[in-house]
Amino acid sequence: MSDFFPIKRLRRAGQVAAVVLLAAGSGLVEAASSVLIWPINPVIEAESNAAALWLENRGQAPVRLQVRVLGWSQKGLSDELVAQQQVVGSPPMATVEPGKRQLVRLIRRQPVPAGQEHAFRIIVDELLPERTQRTNELGVQFQMRYSVPLFVYGAGLAAPKGGTGPAEGPNLRFRIVQEDGQPYLYVNNEGAVHARMSQASLTQGARKVDVAQGLLGYVLPFSEMRWPLPAGTPISGASLLVRVNEQNDAQTIASQ
Predict the structure, then answer these.
(1) Structure pTM?
(2) Superfamily in which the 5-153 domain is placed by CATH
């Protein structure tokens, strides 16, 4: 799952097709629609009870937005999003006029246990105009959905700034597995905080295989995720280089 993705939904005669557009991990998010969202990496530290999320309308018409905060976990090598009440967005719905911006407060309603990081996804839906919603479903209708990660911390733990290892942040190990002729990169995180991985590559001697020039993905605490690799990727003897969280440079991750 990326830092941010808008999903454009097309409804025609009851069928739904989804087009996922990935955006680079910068401080601002501006997708194919007119909505600008920042920051894309909000956190609620242990000593705080809320964080700010800004929604800006750079289009020529008002936009109706709905904000939800879902619990985020990783199980069975996949992301799971569930309804929760630990963190809420206020206001949950807003109409933003052209050229205006809306502040959404992300409010923690329940404490996070000491030494733990809890992960969430902020879902911002750009709703259809009310007049369009009253029409039938036979025409083509559009709706944009945005997803931004949110991390909330308990006492004694803070957002990772870089580095890996139990004392600094995520504790990562990797392995490469061939499954039905397809090589996969598995990354396991035994640390107490998430790992946001980007600029990943595998090296074996003088050979280098680029895995992701931008964002590869996230591995939450005590979770494991996997990504497909190009055909012919070396299975054994390779080293993984990846930029983790706020590091300036890529570092070598130990193999399992």
Answers:
(1) 0.85
(2) Immunoglobulins (2.60.40.10)
